[in-house]
TrEMBL record:
Domain of life: Bacteria
Keyword Cell wall biogenesis/degradation: no
CDD domains: ASKHA_NBD_TsaB
CC per GO annotation: cytosol
GO biological process, one term: tRNA threonylcarbamoyladenosine modification
GO MF term (any one): transferase activity
Domain Gcp-like: 33-128
UniProt xrefs under Pfam families: TsaD
Keywords annotated in UniProt: Transferase
Protein name: tRNA (Adenosine(37)-N6)-threonylcarbamoyltransferase complex dimerization subunit type 1 TsaB
Transmembrane segment boundaries: none
Provenance organism: Bradyrhizobium rifense
Amino acid sequence: MLILALDTALEACAAAVLDTDAGELLAQEQLLMKRGHAEALMPMIARVMQSANLAFTALDRIAVTVGPGSFTGLRVGISAARGLALAAKRPAVGLTTLSAYAAAIVGQSGPVPVISAIDARHDHVYFQIVAGDGSLLLRPAVAPIDEAIAASKFGPPHLVGNAAKILAERWPKDAPQPVSIDAQPAPDISWVAWLGAAANPDTNPARPFYLKAPDAKPAAQPLLAAQAATS
């Protein structure tokens, strides 16, 4: 199976092509950035596909991170994945950034739980907790940092994600300490690709996964509401 994987959810713009039969990435590229994903993504996809020496119609599916993450970044990646999938007549699948973060550790951590954490700002984090075998212990949620730490009652965890250090710095001194702290600015694109290969397109659609309402609001909404109130 040939998978094109995309990630623009957080502080990176990344694309990769995975050949699951060969068990390897044919091409990959990642640029760390907080802004500018919209300008960077399509040229990056073109370079990756050229490096892999593939036409888009040769792909079996397109995988993309769907959140939690930046409202604008998510829209860039998801729009690109949907557009390419429509043009190539291939399915697009969505994977959460929390799962992509955890995937690099799951299977290597034995019985140790994995907490994926993303900075949600305003002293909050998006997080989920999985067991060492990947089974879900605590479903994705958004909570104050101290509440997220208090929710970890499954033993000393691996911390991963762009908020891993934030959790570690607030971790109670009298509690069993985290086994490891992996503060990646964005998930490894190779794991987005592998998760995309395993995902069911019917149950993992390429649409935004929000745990709270986005901070960005369409400017037209207040105007429309005001017009409705006076009509």
